[in-house]
Amino acid sequence: MSIRGSLLAKPYLSLLYAGAAMAVWLLAWLHAYVGPVDHSRLSYSSYLTDKHGELLHVLLADDERLRIRTELQDVDGHYLSLLLAYEDQRFWAHHGVDWLAMSRAIWQLLSTGRIVSGGSTLTMQAVRLMEPKPRTVWNKLDQMRKAIALERQYSKPQVLQRYLSLAPFGSNIEGVNAASLRWFNKWPAELTPAEAALLVALPQAPESRRPDRHPQRATKARNQVLQRALTKGIIDSEYLHTANLSPVPHRPWPLAKYAMHLAWSKRLQGVEYQATSIDTDIQNRLSDIVQRHPLPPGLNLAVLVAESQTGKIIAYIGSQDYFNFANHGAIDYTQAVRSPGSTLKPFIYGLAQANGDIHFNTLIKDSVTDIQGYQPLNLSKRFVGEVTISEALQRSLNTPAVKVLDRYGPDKFKGKLASAGIALRNGKGLPMALGGAGTSLADLVSLYTALGNDGKVMPLTTELHAQQQATKTLTKHSAQQLNWILSNNAGQQGKLHGAQQLQAVAYKTGTGPGGSDALALANNGKYTIGIWVGSPDGGAVANNTGLRSAVPIMHKVMDQLPKGRLAVKAIGKPPTALATFNPQPAKLKIHYPVHNSELQMRKQHMRLHLDLAGATYPIWATINGQTMHQLKSANQSLLLPTKGAYSIQLVDSQHQSGKVNFYLK
Length: 665
Description:
alpha+beta, Penicillin binding protein transpeptidase fold, Immunoglobulin-like, 5-stranded antiparallel beta sheet
């Protein structure tokens, strides 16, 4: 080489060395750790599915985007194959940046003066979706750097999941789940290859390819994806021909919004997704009944339906119209604390019967009553005289319920309900019998599951796969007899209840103070339903009673439900000791066993001989509120089969009563 040629070569060598140094620095900079990619701006739509897995309700993300988180298992294999074939063929091999594709894209840009193919990987696109920035060379380099960092931070499936959740599909739609539901009204696992191909093509130009606005562009882009799929052997030529003839959707499908109050309740609890027990068909039919039902101005209503044996809610309607803000429609009245009216009376009588205080055919006087200054009145302001407990419940008479609650013990009653998860708030004492303590419609429905569940109260849930633990509250015997009382009624003058024509239903009404609340609680053996009609502010409403306002809705709701089988048991004659209700019975003196003592079981069971002073036989003994035994003489004993705690309630023929607790070890 000549001296002149050597001198000319030096600048080129200098440029080559500088270029190589720049490339080394760029690679080092790109691979330098930059920390996690910021995606704090992102929030996701919350949504619910029904008992069949269909979309029940979806709420937009905080930024008003329909952005539903999408996992790999949510999408069909066809979609993933098409996506990788079209967008990022070496996704599983590269480390965030596909240098071969990037080099090809740069060469094509330099040689043609325009963009022929993109070099962005799915990882780079995920970074751009998490951190949107203007398209500049510097931001592109930063995107590459963060893509490399992202793949160090997450696995390949996790990176792909972020793209699937954030990819744009036109309008406010983001993520494959949202796009599939909005454009095809199905989950992505159910997409055909032609439908999947459209969703692969849309994110490249989500607005200019929107199928509802630009169907020709959308069709062309989809067909290009399908052609690539044919080249890669994902589909055959016959399918390509058929798919190319398929029309693209001409409009987005409306969002499912069938349970607004439940959806917002879960959203406020931080639940992004829940598979619920709601039956959408029943939910929609009952919502239609509720929305069409004429209500006087200023009233609202709520409906709740649950399976008696599981506590799973199948219909949840929090108000007549969520969007009627003038009538406070956004309030969830199934959860609001309101007066239960007379709806607690069946459980006052049922618990007292199991405790040996009454029999359902005990005669009791409905008359002027004064218990330490408390003087209850009936709704009619009249008294009917002597009636059985059953008839007092059917007529919803007030003074008998107060007398029996006084005998059983208000604090004991409140505690018994609390142990089953039923809270009575803002009230105590005897007024609780007539609605003088607040509770929610949801708690009342939970309580009334006992009538369809052999006396066991089921906590309510909307979670499809939840396993609930029941609480034994009534005896099976008491629950079945209460069902007989509340269903076996011809609806004579002055009575509140009537026999259903389509199926046997046990139900009880309730009316809050001044008509502020009107309730109907019902059970057909399979389902428990609750109806509330009332004033949002708790103000008095003339003529708003359970019978007048809630029962007509209850009939319509019950007719929409599958038939159940109500377990009933006819009521026989009461024992002599419980033939009539004595407001102030004398106390039996129990010498043995000693109250709160411990007894020793010496065999596999124990014969307990009672030592009573002044008792008149026969005596009726109720053991642990479950079983009643008659002792005809002092020589007879009670059989105690197992160790444990015992509570025995005693009533003799002169209505003297007593109770003793002890532990058998």
